[in-house]
Amino acid sequence: MKKKNSRNTKGRIVSAAWHLFYEQGYDNTTVDDIIYESETSKGSFYHYFSGKDALLSTLSYLFDEKYEELSSDFPEDMSAFDKLIFLNGELFRMIEDSVSIELLSQLLSSQLITKSEKHLLDKKRTYYKLLRSIITEGQQNGELDTDKTANEIVKAYALFERALMYDWCLCNGEYSLKEYGQNMLEMFLNGFKKA
Q1: With respect to CATH, is domain 1-49 assigned 3.20.20?
Q2: What pLDDT digit, counting tens, does each position of 97-130 carry?
Q3: Where does residue 183 rank: exposed (0-12), middle (13-18), buried (19+ CB within 10 A)?
Q4: Which CATH class is domain 53-190?
Q5: Start and end residues for every CATH 1.10.357.10 domain found in the chain
């Protein structure tokens, strides 16, 4: 039970921080704001994070929470292909609605220069586990090609999503990430459909 409470505390801090970053901007959000919004304590905050900058690397946790939430909503008869399109669309909608381009840019660039954990590449994340599960299911039911392993397809899919986010940041959000992502991802995934 204690582990669940600690996860909830950390999750509340992360959620509150990203909500405030979006609403007030990163520079205008203080640690005290985050503590107040998350209804936690200063001790709890510093137990999990060394400061506000340490929260930049937590966006992937929010993505994983979104994936966990979405995966429980799949209709039983939904194809693997449609699950991947659906997950991408919902994730990109969340990014457009609640993550500023500046913050997403900082996250992506921080992964290039960090000497510590590259959380976007962490194969233990819910993101990678869920993608592997969906792709394996698609291969087993004859929907997706088996010329490539599930891990190879997962790696390509994740790379493609990161590229779409990077381009959206580079173009300063001049187009809808969700709509463009859906169109591009469908073309990309067609290359893995069983002939």
Answers
A1: no
A2: 888 888 888 778 776 766 666 666 777 888 999 9
A3: exposed
A4: mainly alpha
A5: 53-190
